Each structure stands twice: as structure tokens, then as C-alpha cells.
């Protein structure tokens, strides 16, 4: 709803600005036309036998300009535009509250962990100079091994951008066993791009020779792909006009860079998605809800800083779902280490605190709230998500 209000306000301002600009240009054109006519009349005096009264021409020009009233119209138009802009700015300030500190809580962060997360982020981005500065100013120990590994992958990616896939193939060859275990077909994709490049820019014979050397060993597990490549040999130098035009689509090289980085991160045991970017994106997504909650609690004089759990759900998109969670159907509390989910003999699941209440602190058997079967605490088994 709020975003719709902002969009409507913006569209009104944009419409007003467009109208103001159009009106201003029309007035400027009218003034320019009158000036040109007056100038033409004055200049014709030199080439005409009839004398022209310059004073009368200027008097007439002044009267026409006064009738147009360009200055008043321009000022009025700009005034209306300024009013609309001011209203839009106030709406933005009201809706998109810039004081995000209201939604912040005093949390003791470990500076070392935070610095390492930031270092890892800049390694991923290939900004090693910034890492050097951070390490120096924050007196952080540098993870030399991690730096060297990320330098290697960025060199591979830079070479790939220049259509040089040899460094990438060397890396694949060095990690062939691990790639095979993970079921990766990265080697095929690299050789496939090289094959297409040779077929497009060199000769059919060279492409066939490359296929025999590098693609034939992969035929047993990728026969369909290789058969398609062999069919493309008939269209050497003109693949764009062939049934195999999709083989030269730029998207293949763009996807290769992402797959190289993802495979590399898998080998390092790290997430492909940058943790710092994910944390910031999730914070931005949840910020409006947190700001509203902070304002409501402040109005009720409740302590925001003392809360251990949010009283309202914070809905994030599926891209932020990394593992399963359990919410107790009785208490509506999310499962935690202190309050884990327990499986009842009947197959239903409740949180530990709910079971403790139902069993009166483990003093008696209790009935499952969702079926008529009885159970005891001893029969319940903890589940791990």
C-alpha cells in the first residue's frame, strides 16, 4: 500500500514536471518568435526603401511580450511544480523513515568475526587492495591461503572474459576427481566453448581435431551433447544462420562465470551467495516491519531492547530460506535449542515447552491436542532440523 502511494505521488510529480516543461518551452518559443520578427523588421530597414521606425517596433515588441506574460507564467508553473515536489519529499520522509536506528538493537558483535566477513566479501569481489587497507587499519590477521585461492579464481575469470579458457581448464584438470564426485560437467562446458570458438573463427579441420583430442574422452557420459556439436561441423563459420545458432549465444559464457565461482566456492566449503550481501538484503527486506514494530512498542512504552523474540512474523522471500524451521502449533513459538521440537508417539510434533505444560512438568501422561492418543514425556523423541 505504501509503495503504491509513493508510486502515485511520483507519477503526479513526473506528470506535472512534463507539463511544466512543455509550457515553458512553448512560452520560450513564442518569445523567440516575437524577437525574431522584431529583429527582421529592424534589419530590413537597411535593405528597404521604406524607413522603419525602430522605436515603434520595440514598443510593439514590448506590448506583445507583456501580453504573453512569460515571466509570470513560468514562475507560476515552477511554483506548482515545487509544491508537488515538496509534497512528494514529505511523503518519502514519512514512509521511508531515514532514521533506521529505531529498528536497531544493542547487540555485542565480535569485531574479529565481522571483519573476517567483510574481508571475505572483498575477496569475492576481487578488491584485494581494500582488504590490504582493512587488515592494516583493523590489525586483522590475513587468511593468506584464502586470499591466494580467490586470486586464482579471479585470474581465471578475467582470462575467461578475454575468451582464454586455458586457466579454467587447468584448474578443472587439477580438481578432476572432486568434480567427478560432485557430478559437475564443467569440463565439458569449457571444451564445448573452445570447440565452438574454433569452428566459428578458424577451420572445420581444426575444430574436428580439437573434438577428437578433448571431447571424445567425454563421449561415454555426454554422447547427446557431443553428437550435437558434431552436427554443427556442417555449418562452420556460419553457425548464426544454422539450426545450431543457440550454441553461439552469449548467455553460455555469462553462465560459465557464475558456475566457475559456484564450483570454486563449493570446493572451499563456502556458500556461493555472499553472506554479507545476504545479510544486508534480508535487513532491507525486514526493515519496514521492524520500524513499525519499534514505533508501536515505543508508543506503548514497551522495551524494544529487552525483547528476546519478535512478537510478529517477519516474512522474507524464498531466496532467504536456507534451512527448515519448526513452529509449534500450540504455542506458535519457533523451535530453538532451548525449546526443541519433540515427536510424539502418534506422529504429531510439539515444542518441548508445550509438552511440559501438557504433562504438568512431566508429572503425568497427557493427551495429544490433535488426536485422542495418550503419551508420556519419555516416549517423545527430539527432532533435528
UniProtKB/TrEMBL annotation:
Domain of life: Eukaryota
Keyword Cell inner membrane among UniProt keywords: no
Annotated ranges, domain CTLH: 149-206
Domain RING-Gid-type residue range list: 328-371
Family matches, as SUPFAM superfamilies: RING/U-box (SSF57850)
Signal peptide start-end: none
Zinc finger (RING-Gid-type): 328-371
Pfam families: CTLH (PF10607), zf-RING_UBOX (PF13445)
Subcellular location: Cytoplasm
GO biological process: proteasome-mediated ubiquitin-dependent protein catabolic process
A GO term, aspect molecular function: zinc ion binding
GO cellular component, one term: cytoplasm
Alphabetic keyword roster: Cytoplasm, Metal-binding, Zinc, Zinc-finger
Ranges for domain RING-type: 328-371
PANTHER family noted in UniProt: GH10162P (PTHR12170:SF3), MACROPHAGE ERYTHROBLAST ATTACHER-RELATED (PTHR12170)
Name of this protein: Uncharacterized protein
